[in-house]
Every structure is written in structure tokens, then in C-alpha cells.
């Protein structure tokens, strides 16, 4: 026989696939083997069905809890396997590896790591509000430490887990074959415990996720009882019993809105904060002490984030951080630098770290095998209906058991009553089978009764034992009547459920750990800041700081002053002004942009400190400097900002136009090439304006001559300048005040505004002060009153504070008197007015 013929005779060869062959036209007839049945399916249909099957497998068999017992399959299998091993709470521990092996081999053919990780979480008291497994060994910590390997740890069921498994042997739930059909496992637990709410659940399925927060068992049971007593109760009324989630790690829930949304719709966002207090330390220092943190927050990661904020200067004022947690509880201490406000720093930490976290509630669970988002009442109703079914099935099981036992006892009673005849029949029978048939025939007994008589011990024939049979029978008759009554009445079933959960409340009820505070809004930082006057200084190189006014002592005219800042030789204080800590500070830059900060946001520093670089506070460009600052209490539309440029241009714009500057700055004025914005004032639109120049010139004109313009306008001419002269300041004319002019060599003079005649805007102006080599160029011109004080700062950082009264009132074009005695090479850099108050400290006090 030829080789090819031998191949054809090989069995099954006709089913092997053959290469596709083409016809004469080159077309392929078939790509399949002969006699093989192939069903064509569209690729998109196959993908759709396969994906849906996969998705439902994940949803039902892995990721979502059952609404009845609150367990996912892996949790249920672990608990059932442990129960099967006899690991009840009053028995000895067994190695975790033994338990994991039992779960894998019998019920859950997946990774051992997944099973062990799940069991570990069921042990952790910071993960579950009421842990279901009692562990011995290292099962991890709230710091994020991993549990020890399963070969080192041991576990058994916690006592509360018995409430999930109780009565499972009484046909209370359905069972299904395990993965290989060799065993059966429960579809759901009897769950006397309302586990879904008290321990919560989280999981990510395909296209959906669940995130149910834990609750206090006492509150949940109170809610179930309220539902039993009033099936028509509303979610709003249920919230009187179940006030909100109760996390195992405690903390504070801020506000009721998120809770209300979650309970009424099944979805909501709950803001959770750490529990933190402020303690006094030595040396007038304060410390923030954290004793509880939000649920599922890693303490070590939290501390690291706080350290990072302190190192990067995003949160200033933190001196040290210590973790003093021990077996007694959590205690994280954040030491605050001296003279810093701990409340402000705590609020910043809430904003930038997980000291404040959001728990997104999605109450999604399986109901009748289908995923469903449930509100609070629906969760309780699903649990209650399950318990009704469990109690009903348990009662039916007990009834059947009692009836079977009563049936046997009825046979035993017949045997005892006819003892002699029974003995005679048994003795006369060849074997047990003949005896059984004869007893059934003689006394009309069932097979079960006859068998029970044959198996009865001789001791049961005593008088005492006969009485016990009668008592047991009567007791069973009462039980049978009770079971039948329960099965006929839903109210009796509900009464049983109520009695059982009240017993749970008695054994496991505890106090809430998470406190709910009414105020949901974020704490406004200004509410934590004492309102006080501060000096804000900006150096020529762009360093800024906030200093309490009280740090400068009052001195007489001509004093040498005190050191005001530790500045470099090439740096000097350029801007110094008075503000309240609650004011908004508008920073106008040389390039015509404006930034905004609250005064308390500016770092406080000592009198001798350098301050913070402006580039770290506001987003100024490298070649841009802050040239003017205004403090604003509120952005009133009736007020205006008058801007003055170095080249004499002025512009008036409504104050409200600058109410919401961006963090990257807002255009304040359009400048011509070479011009610089150098001063700004707040006006009411009806004032007179006074401009002063470096060369000693000045002009006074009506503000109405400068019309209101848009935010990005260029403006109009305010004063005609001589060559090389520039504007150094602008003031709102106050007839009751005087003009204080300070020159670079420490001279100053006061003149009345009436000495400056009213002119038209754009003129060249008149002499303000005689500029000579002795008194130097003009540094500042400002409005002052007799009871005001003035602070002068030099380029070398010397400061003097003196009363305005000590500076003599002079004519308009005089040189003035010496205000500060300068050291060689030093000059006056800036001057600012301090408004005197009745409560000011006496001279010489800090």
C-alpha cells in the first residue's frame, strides 16, 4: 500500500484541518476542515457577549457585596471555611496559612495573597468598625505596615462573626456547589448582624463601584427597630436614629448635607476631618495634637506630607513633628514656632493634607443578584426581608424537627404502654427486620417509630424515663403550636427579629467614635486671626514681611533709631505701610499688574528679620518690582483707584474692577514704553489730587479732571515734568491736614495744602521744597495730622518713629528741619504715617 493511501486510512484523519485551496479563479472555497461544524459569529457580537459575561462575573462573583449579609464571596468563603474548621471565638487559634489553604482548596480557587489580604483586613480594627476575625500576630498597622506572612500569624472567628453564621445549619439559606462540585457553600449568610451598614464595604467592579461607610451598631439597630414598628417611616425620620457614618478611626464629619444626600439617594460626599487639639508648650509655644485621623488614611504618609509642606515653605510656622502614638492610642504632635497662630496652621493643614478628606458614598450592593444603588431605607428593608426569610425557614426547620421527634415519641409511648406485648413480639422474631414489620402491623406504627422502638435502650423502660418521655412530648407539642403560630404571623416573625437584634445591641453596642459637627463650611482663616495693626515692609530687592506696630518704640525727633531689618548693603526698605491683619493688600507692580493677598497671609517676622522673597509670595516676573500697595477692607463700587506713573500719567478706575485678581496677576494699567507705575491711591471721585516730584515740584488739581477709565486704559497727563524729574508720590488733599515732605538727607517739613494753589491737570506745578545738597532730593510727600506719627527707614535698615508735632510747620518752599540723624553714607529710603490711637502704648514701651 502506498504511503498516501495509508494516511487516508488513519482514524480521525478526516477531521483534521486542511490548508485552504483556491479554485481556478483563485477564490478560497473554505478555510475549515471537512465534516467540522462551524457557526459564524460576528466579532462585535462575540465581544459584547463575552465582555458582559465577564463584567457580570466580576460584579456578582467578586467586587460587590450582597445587600443581605454585606459580604463579598471571598469574605463569605473565609468565614464559612473557618466555621467548618471549628475556629469559633472560644476555640484555639490556627495558623493563617492553614485557613487560607482551606479556603483555596474548597471554595475560592484564586490567589492565596488575595485571600490572605482579605482576611487581614477582617482582623484590623482600623479597617472594620467591628472586626469579624480575631487575629494573633502582626496583622499590619494604621501606619501602612504590612501584615506578617501567613505562616507566622494565627486567627479564629471573632465572637461577633457567630452572629453572621448562626443557624446556618438549620436550612436558613440556600447552598450552591463549589467550583468543582465536590462540596457546597452558602449563597448568603443568615446574618443576624446588619453587616452591610455596620462594617461598610468598598470595591471596584466593571463600570461601577461601591463605597459604603461603616456605622455604629447601636444606631443601626435603633433604625431597624424603627422600621419594624413603622414600615412607612421616611429616610428623614430614620436619620433621627442613624445620624451618620461612624468610622473605626474616629474623626469629625463636617456638615449634614453629604450624609443627607447619601441616605436619601445612595450617593453623597462626606467631608471628614482629623480630631486635633491645640496644647500650650513651654516658652509660649503651641502644639497641634492629632488623636484621630480620617478613615483609610495612612498615618505615616500623612506625617510625610506635613513634613514636605514645612520643608517647601508651603506651610510656615512648623517647628517640629513627632509621632508619640503607642498602645494607648494615636498622638501626633506638631510643634508650632513661637508667636505663630496654631489655628491658622491647622486650617492650612486641613486644606493641603489628608487631615481633611472626602468620603464619596456609593451605596451599591447586589439585590436579587443585580447591582442596585440603595438609599438608607432600602438597605434596611433588604436586610429585614432577608431576616424574615431566615427566621421563617429556621422556624419551619424547627417545626419539622419537632414534628419528627413528636412522631417518634408517640411511638415510644405506645411501646411503653404495651411493654409486655412489645417484648414478646421482639423475642419471637427471627431478626430486627421481622420484629419491625410485626410492630408496625400490630400497633399501626410507622417505619420510623418501629425502628426507634427497636433501638430504644432498656434504661428508657424505667418509671423515671417514662416520665421524661411524657414531659418531652408535651414540651414538643407546645413548641409545635408556637412554630405554627409564628409561620402564620409576620408580626410574630418581626417580634423575634426585634428581640434578637436587641440582644445584639446589648452585647455589642458601643458609643460613637466619629463626631458630627454642624458647620460644613470651611473655617475662614480671618476668623482665627486677631485683628490688629501691622507694618508691612517691602525692600528694594523684593523681600516682604509683616511686623506688629508695637515692636517699634516711640522716639524723639533727631534720635538715631533702632535696627529695623537685617538688609544687605545694596538692599534697602522701599515700601513701608500700615494695615490691619484682616485687610486685603493689593500689590501694584512696575509693569502695571496687580496681585492680592490678605494681610495675615504675609509672613510675620521679627523686626530684624529679612523677610520672605516676594517671588515666593506672588508671581512677579524677574524684572518686575512691587511699587505700590493698598489695603482694602471691601471692594466698594463707589470708590476708585487713582494710579500715578513715574512719567506723570494718572488714571482713575473703579475699585471693584480689581476685586478678583488672578494668582498670575491682573492688568491694572497699560503703560507706555519706558514708563513705570509708581503710586496708587483710593479715592471717592470728588477729591483734589496732590502730586509731588523728586526734584521738589508739586501740583494740586481736582480729581474730576481725570475721567473714569477701564482697567486696561493708559490714562492722561497729571503733571508736566522737567527733564530727569519723576513723580515720587500722590496724595488725596485733606484741608484739615498738612503735607509732610521728607528728603533723602533726613530733613522734613510740614506745609498747609492752602499754600499750594489749585491748578489744572497737566501743568508743570510749583515748588514744594527747595532741593539742595544739604537736604537732598525728595523721598516722600504725604498727608499728616498733628496727632499722627511717622516712621522713617534708611537704606541701611535704621528706623525711627517720631510724632508729627515734633516736625515744625514751615512755608511751602523752605528746606525744613532735621527729622533723623543719619550715619555717614546712609540716606532715608522711605517714610510712612502711623495713625495714633487713644489706646497706643506710652512712649518707651514695646
Separation of the first and last Cα atoms: 122 Å
State the helicity in percent bands.
25-40%
In the predicted model, the low-confidence regions spanning at least 5 consecutive residues are 1-22, 553-562, 565-570, 836-846
Count of spatially separate domains: 4
| Fourth-tier CATH superfamily name of the largest domain | DNA gyrase/topoisomerase IV, subunit A, C-terminal
The beta-strand count equals 41
Supply the CATH class of the largest domain. Mainly Beta
Second rung of CATH, namely the architecture of the largest domain: 6 Propeller
The secondary-structure class comes to alpha+beta
SSE inventory with pairings:
Elements: H1 3-9, H2 43-63, H3 73-84, E1 94-95, H4 96-106, H5 112-123, E2 133-136, E3 154-157, H6 162-165, E4 175-177, E5 184-186, H7 195-199, E6 201-204, E7 209-212, H8 217-229, H9 235-238, E8 252-254, H10 257-265, E9 267-273, E10 275-280, E11 286-292, H11 299-311, E12 318-323, E13 332-336, H12 342-352, E14 356-362, E15 364-367, E16 370-373, H13 376-417, H14 419-428, H15 432-443, H16 447-455, H17 463-488, H18 490-508, E17 515-517, H19 525-528, E18 533-539, E19 543-548, E20 562-563, E21 573-580, E22 584-589, E23 593-598, E24 612-613, E25 626-632, E26 640-645, E27 649-654, E28 666-667, E29 677-683, E30 688-693, E31 697-702, E32 716-717, E33 727-732, E34 738-743, E35 747-752, E36 766-767, E37 778-784, E38 789-794, E39 798-803, E40 817-818, E41 828-834
Parallel strand pairs: 8-17
Antiparallel strand pairs: 1-3, 2-3, 4-5, 6-7, 8-9, 9-14, 10-11, 11-13, 12-13, 15-16, 18-19, 18-21, 19-24, 20-39, 22-23, 22-25, 23-28, 26-27, 26-29, 27-32, 30-31, 30-33, 31-36, 34-35, 34-37, 35-40, 38-39, 38-41
Amino acid at each position: 500500500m502506498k504511503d498516501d493511501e495509508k494516511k487516508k486510512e488513519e482514524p480521525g484523519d478526516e477531521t483534521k484541518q486542511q490548508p485552504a485551496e483556491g479554485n481556478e479563479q483563485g477564490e478560497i472555497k473554505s478555510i475549515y476542515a471537512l465534516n467540522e461544524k462551524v457557526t459564524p459569529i460576528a466579532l462585535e457580537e462575540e465581544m459584547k457577549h463575552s465582555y458582559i459575561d465577564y463584567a457580570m462575573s466580576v460584579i456578582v462573583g467578586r467586587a460587590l457585596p450582597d445587600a443581605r449579609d454585606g459580604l463579598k464571596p471571598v469574605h463569605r468563603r473565609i468565614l464559612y471555611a473557618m466555621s467548618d474548621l471549628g475556629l469559633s471565638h472560644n476555640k484555639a487559634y490556627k495558623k493563617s496559612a492553614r485557613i487560607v489553604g482551606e479556603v483555596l482548596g474548597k471554595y475560592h480557587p484564586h490567589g492565596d495573597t488575595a485571600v490572605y489580604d482579605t482576611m487581614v483586613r477582617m482582623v484590623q480594627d482600623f479597617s472594620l468598625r467591628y472586626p469579624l476575625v480575631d487575629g494573633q500576630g502582626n496583622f499590619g498597622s494604621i501606619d501602612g505596615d504590612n501584615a506578617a506572612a501567613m505562616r507566622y500569624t494565627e486567627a479564629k472567628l471573632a465572637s461577633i462573626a457567630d452572629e453572621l453564621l448562626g443557624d446556618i445549619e438549620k436550612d436558613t439559606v440556600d447552598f450552591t456547589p463549589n467550583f468543582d462540585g465536590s462540596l457546597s457553600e452558602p449563597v448568603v449568610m443568615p446574618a443576624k448582624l446588619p453587616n452591610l451598614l455596620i462594617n461598610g464595604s468598598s470595591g471596584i467592579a466593571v463600570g461601577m463601584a461601591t463605597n459604603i461607610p461603616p456605622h455604629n451598631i447601636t444606631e443601626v439597630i435603633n433604625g431597624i427597630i424603627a422600621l419594624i414598628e413603622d414600615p412607612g417611616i421616611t429616610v428623614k425620620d430614620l436619620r433621627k436614629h442613624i445620624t451618620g457614618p461612624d468610622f473605626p478611626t474616629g474623626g469629625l464629619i463636617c456638615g449634614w448635607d453629604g450624609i443627607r444626600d447619601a441616605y436619601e439617594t445612595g450617593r453623597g460626599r462626606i467631608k471628614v476631618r482629623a480630631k486635633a487639639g491645640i496644647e500650650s508648650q513651654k516658652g509660649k509655644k503651641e502644639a497641634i495634637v492629632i488623636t484621630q485621623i480620617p478613615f483609610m488614611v495612612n498615618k505615616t504618609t500623612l506625617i510625610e506630607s506635613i513634613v514636605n509642606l514645612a520643608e517647601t515653605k508651603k506651610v510656615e510656622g512648623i517647628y517640629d513633628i513627632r509621632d508619640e502614638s503607642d498602645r494607648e492610642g494615636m498622638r501626633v504632635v506638631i510643634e508650632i514656632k513661637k508667636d505663630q497662630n496654631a489655628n491658622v496652621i491647622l486650617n492650612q493643614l486641613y486644606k493641603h493634607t489628608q487631615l481633611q478628606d472626602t468620603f464619596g458614598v456609593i451605596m451599591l450592593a447586589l439585590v436579587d443578584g443585580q447591582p442596585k444603588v440603595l438609599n438608607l431605607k432600602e438597605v434596611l428593608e433588604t436586610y429585614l426581608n432577608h431576616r424574615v426569610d431566615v427566621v421563617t425557614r429556621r422556624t419551619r426547620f424547627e417545626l419539622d424537627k419537632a414534628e419528627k421527634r413528636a412522631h417518634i415519641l408517640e411511638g415510644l409511648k405506645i411501646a411503653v404502654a404495651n411493654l409486655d406485648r412489645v417484648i414478646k413480639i421482639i423475642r419471637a422474631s427471627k431478626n430486627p427486620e421481622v420484629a419491625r414489620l410485626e410492630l408496625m402491623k400490630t400497633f399501626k406504627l410507622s417505619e420510623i417509630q418501629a425502628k426507634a422502638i427497636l433501638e430504644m435502650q432498656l434504661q428508657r423502660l424505667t418509671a423515671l424515663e417514662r416520665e421524661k418521655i411524657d414531659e418531652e412530648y408535651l414540651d414538643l407539642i407546645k413548641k409545635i403550636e408556637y412554630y405554627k403560630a409564628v409561620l402564620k404571623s409576620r408580626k410574630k416573625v418581626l417580634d423575634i427579629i426585634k428581640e434578637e437584634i436587641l440582644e445584639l445591641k446589648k452585647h455589642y453596642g458601643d458609643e460613637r467614635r466619629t463626631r458630627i459637627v454642624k458647620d460644613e463650611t470651611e473655617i475662614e482663616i480671618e476668623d482665627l486671626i486677631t485683628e490688629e495693626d501691622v507694618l508691612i515692609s517691602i525692600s528694594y530687592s523684593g523681600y516682604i514681611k509683616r511686623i506688629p506696630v508695637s515692636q517699634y518704640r516711640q522716639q524723639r525727633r533727631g534720635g538715631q533709631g533702632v535696627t529695623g531689618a537685617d538688609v544687605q548693603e545694596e538692599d534697602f526698605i522701599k515700601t513701608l505701610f500700615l494695615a490691619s491683619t484682616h485687610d486685603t493688600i493689593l500689590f501694584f507692580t512696575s509693569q502695571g499688574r496687580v496681585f492680592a493677598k490678605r494681610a495675615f497671609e504675609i509672613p510675620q517676622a521679627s523686626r530684624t528679620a529679612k523677610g520672605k522673597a516676594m517671588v515666593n509670595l506672588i508671581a512677579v516676573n524677574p524684572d518686575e518690582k512691587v511699587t505700590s500697595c493698598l489695603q482694602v477692607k471691601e471692594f466698594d463700587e463707589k470708590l476708585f483707584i487713582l494710579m500715578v506713573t513715574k512719567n506723570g500719567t494718572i488714571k482713575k478706575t473703579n475699585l471693584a474692577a480689581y476685586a478678583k485678581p488672578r494668582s498670575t496677576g491682573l492688568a491694572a494699567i497699560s503703560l507706555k514704553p519706558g514708563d513705570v507705575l509708581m503710586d496708587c491711591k483710593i479715592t471717592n471721585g470728588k477729591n483734589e489730587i496732590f502730586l509731588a516730584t523728586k526734584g521738589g515740584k508739586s501740583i494740586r488739581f481736582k480729581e474730576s479732571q481725570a475721567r473714569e477709565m477701564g482697567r486696561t486704559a493708559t490714562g492722561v497727563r497729571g503733571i508736566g515734568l522737567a527733564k530727569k524729574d519723576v513723580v515720587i508720590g500722590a496724595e488725596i488733599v485733606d484741608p484739615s491736614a498738612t503735607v509732610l515732605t521728607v528728603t533723602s538727607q533726613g530733613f522734613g517739613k510740614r506745609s498747609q495744602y492752602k499754600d499750594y494753589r489749585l491748578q489744572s491737570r497737566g501743568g508743570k506745578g510749583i515748588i514744594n521744597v527747595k532741593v539742595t545738597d544739604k537736604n537732598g532730593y525728595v523721598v516722600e510727600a504725604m498727608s499728616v495730622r498733628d496727632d499722627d506719627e511717622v516712621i522713617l527707614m534708611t537704606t541701611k535698615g535704621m528706623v525711627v518713629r517720631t510724632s508729627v508735632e515734633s516736625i515744625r510747620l514751615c512755608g511751602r518752599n523752605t528746606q525744613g528741619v532735621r527729622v533723623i540723624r543719619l550715619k555717614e553714607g546712609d540716606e532715608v529710603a522711605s517714610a510712612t504715617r502711623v495713625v495714633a490711637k487713644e489706646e497706643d502704648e506710652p512712649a518707651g514701651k514695646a
